[in-house]
Amino acid sequence: MYNKAKTQFIFIPKKITGNITIPNSVTSIPSSAFSGCISLTSVTIHDGVTSIGDYAFNGCTSLTGVTIGSGVTSIGDYAFYSCTSLTGITIPNSVTSIGQQAFRGCTSLVSVTIGNGVTSIGQGAFMGFTSLTSVTFQGTITSTGFDNNAFYTLGDLRSKFYATDAENGTPGTYTTTAPVNNTSVWTKQD
């Protein structure tokens, strides 16, 4: 249930089903807000939201689509952890930080686009993928902001990103073939 006066969500976990839209009047999605909502299938987050809290959508195993509005600046730790039906995600340019293990265990994820505003990606943020075959970096990320284990278990993706610019990385689309594992070889597309 949405409480407009307090711009927060109050609900009984696991009871939300189908599609939801988070309106512009909401400024943040609190920690664990939708955690365990196993029947939630899609989420649209409007531009008024600035942050997605830790564990916000953790374990939403039926979630296939997420649209993140251009007001979001941070995605918390474990925010989409184990959303096993999620197939693609676009991180908008407004996002500056992606928390640790934010998308870990999203085993159906095929493509990821990381906007040009991202300056930090936490440990294991994109860990445990087996279907991922395309990652697009729209901007650069300093090597100190890109945790060594952000793409742990995805082969040489991080090293390929920094292959021609060891400090900032090279924007572009990187692809590989599934199933993805720690020996996967990624190729930058021209």
Low-confidence stretches: 1-7
- Helix % is under 10%
Biggest sheet strand order reads 4-6-8-10-12
Report the portion of residues in β strands. Answer: 25-35%
Looking at how many chains there are and whether they match, the oligomeric state comes to single chain
Query: Could you give the distance between the termini?
Result: 47 Å
Listing every helix as H and every strand as E from the N terminus to the C terminus, the arrangement reads EEEEEEEEEEEEEHEE
Q: What is the count of helical runs?
A: 1
Radius of gyration: 16 Å
User: Average pLDDT value?
Assistant: 92
What does the secondary structure layout of this molecule look like, with pairings?
Layout: E1 2-3, E2 8-9, E3 17-22, E4 28-29, E5 39-45, E6 51-52, E7 65-68, E8 74-75, E9 88-91, E10 97-98, E11 111-114, E12 120-121, E13 134-137, H1 157-161, E14 172-175, E15 187-188
Parallel strand pairs: 3-5, 4-6, 5-7, 6-8, 8-10, 9-11, 10-12, 11-13
Antiparallel strand pairs: 1-2, 13-14, 14-15
In short:
The chain is built from one helix and 15 strands; from the N terminus they run E-E-E-E-E-E-E-E-E-E-E-E-E-H-E-E. With 190 residues, the protein is mainly β.
Explained architecture:
Strands 4-6-8-10-12 form a 5-stranded parallel sheet, with no helix packed on it. A 5-stranded mixed sheet has the order 9-11-13-14-15. A 3-stranded parallel sheet has the order 3-5-7, with no helix packed on it. The chain has one helix at residues 157-161; strands at residues 2-3, 8-9, 17-22, 28-29, 39-45, 51-52, 65-68, 74-75, 88-91, 97-98, 111-114, 120-121, 134-137, 172-175, 187-188. By secondary structure, it is mainly β. It has 1 helix and 15 strands.
